[in-house]
Amino acid sequence: MKKEFAVIGLGRFGGSICRELIREGMHVLALDLDEDKVNEYRDIASHAVIADSTDENVLRELGLRNIDHVIVAIGDNIQASMLTTLMLEEMGIKKITVKAQNDYHEKILNKIGADHIVHPERDMGKRIAHNIISNNILDYIELSDDHSVVEVIAGSKLSGQSLIELDIRAQYGCNVVAIKRGKEINVSPMATEEIVEGDILIVIGADKDISRFEKNLITED
Ligand code: ATP
């Protein structure tokens, strides 16, 4: 059975989630206060409705309690975002993802019980900053305040050496969890796997360890 989603707020963020879920074959109820936004999604979403998500009766009438996962993508109106999340929580929705506008908003959403809080502008800003600072870091995902996953390009320093020879886990405290070579991706590479210049390594660990690893083994002198 198709998973049922609802996206509340069809700005750039909510709209792009809606389009992508539909592209992946999901069933999506799209909801916004703004008639023009809803009209834009009439032919895209499975259903598109003009509604105010802060009205509890509306949420009930739309049958939101039967939806598997609701995404609250209301931006500027923090009060509406919080009230909507609280009501969805009280209705017993299994999974709620909410876009946070700032740290204060995020803190309250945590208290209300949102399952998953996203901060797209802040997170994308951090990813781009890491990519700008180091040409060798292709991507960066923050796991916590001090742990991340990064994608780095292997240069000449690593070329021809195996993971066991490099002893990255013992020397640097981080782990190479996958190696991308062209279109191939080797998840959980063997210790004997030899690195080739140009390989993309996916490394997980504490930021300070990843930074040491990157400085010593990736950055060219
Ligand atoms: P983005 O960056 O994703 O474009 P944003 O962060 O600027 O958006 P807004 O444009 O403020 O966010 O809000 C996103 C959408 O949420 C808007 O289309 C707005 O009409 C809708 N919205 C705001 N309040 C409600 C509400 N109570 N019920 C339904 N939709 C709402």
From TrEMBL:
Limits of the RCK N-terminal domain: 2-118
GO molecular function: monoatomic cation transmembrane transporter activity
SUPFAM superfamilies in UniProt: NAD(P)-binding Rossmann-fold domains (SSF51735), TrkA C-terminal domain-like (SSF116726)
InterPro entries: NAD(P)-bd_dom_sf (IPR036291), RCK_C (IPR006037), RCK_C_sf (IPR036721), RCK_N (IPR003148), Trk_Ktr_HKT_K-transport (IPR050721)
RCK C-terminal domain: residues covered: 135-219
Record-level GO BP terms: potassium ion transport
Protein name: Trk system potassium uptake protein TrkA
